[in-house]
Amino acid sequence: MHSSKQDLVNYYVGIDVGTASVRAALVDQFGTVVAHADQPIQIWEPQPDYYEQSSDDIWAACCTVTKKIVCGIDAERIRGLGFDATCSLVVVDKQFRPLAVNYEGEHTRNIILWMDHRAASQVARINGTQHSVLSYVGGTMSVEMQPPKLLWIKENLRKSCWEKAGYFFDLPDFLSWKATGVTARELGVCFCLAPPCSSLWNCEWGDPITLILFAHHSLQRLTPGNQILSPGTSVGNGLTPEAAKDLGLPCGIAVAASLIDAHAGGLGIIGGDVKGHNLPCENQPITSRLALICGTSSCHMGISETPIYVPGVWGPYYSAMVPGFWLNEGGQSATGKLIEHVVQGHVAFPELQAKAAASAQSIYTYLNSHLDLIKKSLPVGFLTVDLHVWPDFHGNRSPLADLTLKGMVVGLTLSQGLDDLALIYLATIQAIALGTRHILETMQAAGHRINTLFLCGGLRKNPLFVQMHADITGKPIVLSQEVESVLVGAAILGACASGDFASIQLTGKGAAGTAAARYTATLASLQRHQQTSWPLISLLLHLKKEGGHGENGKNWESCAAKPQA
């Protein structure tokens, strides 16, 4: 819906390319979303752990949603455009045509999605070098980063892809190029493309990694011209005539250097006004806040005035999200994806679908209501006192940084009804929150001083998800008045590029909005997790730290997964 107040108001377009959809928002100069739209995008999974997308499909979706949100708006009032996107690898040839990243030679599928784990052996070799540059990624490079994916392409698709490739883009940079025709790269994106840029270009990772991957001709395809821009910097001469026609926007409007989607979410929420909400971060430095972006996966964004090295947590990266501050980024590779997997894979899922539809509710709203019905007089968190989930179904990004870890469930019974589905749904959410606590405590131990969590993304719309994070971390959770914080973050970039605001800090201060709601821990539920779930997690972590063996010499996975007679 469009605002009725359009007179003398400037607008900025933010486009967010997530894992499964593209969204766009028209944001006014006060940080209010006045129109938004979304469009699903395709994901191919040709085999387990292989995930691919299409840059043509994504750009077409960008055009569809942008045309929808600007319909009826005076084009002269649209001042800037900003993109954010997942940290996925886009490959095109020397004429910028899509180039297949698969054995099938399907050129439409020219993106290796961020969550793709095909390069497991390649990342193991990179980490085996134990090079000092790895300290900027928590000591262990993730398979989700671009160097192992590039190495996989070189070793597996040398003739069909590697030798024909003209450019390797991270998806946010691809979108900026598509809009402007300029191949400049954004600073924060470069850290995830090949962290950290300045060290990587000059590092000696030892044979064969450096020589086979980062030879001079390859670097030219990664950062052509070595033009690396800070987020929000205006790119080239703005929107090209062709892109303007595609998007339905005025030719020449400012296009910003893009951001990774989680960084845009952090930018859109971390500066929110909390006055009057009695929060511990009020009148405290912005470094006391953690931005938690929760969607298909979750990212935990903490900033500091000086570099902090956190084991198993990416960074520190200077000015990657907020200019002038160092960024540490923790993460969980599957959160929304994990909840969906657990719920939809349960035998009672058809029953849930039918009952949710009959009551005109989403399946998650219905599950939350069902849990309220069966909890009786106890807090809902007590329902899973005998049911525990280990959430690393897609490996552990932070802080264990172990892609080989698997998920597990402890405490199953023979029940297969709707009650059982509701309980395992709850236990999965609690497991994700326990993972956040593990990341938070690791960051605190390294030197961060965080007292408040700011949450955005699709999962912020689930009150059970938010409350469990408050209960389990013991930290207050802040939700912004503006639900679409990631889109606001993308629009902040466009506003900064337009020149209407002097800096990202000043733009974000006005656009991040005010706190709309706060969640605090339910004392009884917090104590329950302190006494049951967290000791179990701590025991498993201890067994892993001690080499994966318990007192009887059994590895920790088998001890946890198999009941003893």
TrEMBL record:
GO terms for molecular function: D-ribulokinase activity. This is FGGY carbohydrate kinase domain-containing protein. It comes from Alligator sinensis. SUPFAM superfamilies: Actin-like ATPase domain (SSF53067). Residues 290-497 form the Carbohydrate kinase FGGY C-terminal domain. CDD domains: ASKHA_NBD_FGGY_D-RBK. It comes from the Eukaryota. The gene is FGGY. PANTHER family: FGGY CARBOHYDRATE KINASE DOMAIN-CONTAINING PROTEIN (PTHR43435:SF4), RIBULOKINASE (PTHR43435). One of its GO terms (biological process) is pentose metabolic process. Belongs to the FGGY kinase family. GO terms for cellular component: cytoplasm. Signal peptide: none annotated. Keywords: Kinase, Transferase. Residues 11-268 form the Carbohydrate kinase FGGY N-terminal domain. InterPro entries: ATPase_NBD, Carb_kinase_FGGY, FGGY_C, FGGY_N, FGGY_RbtK-like.
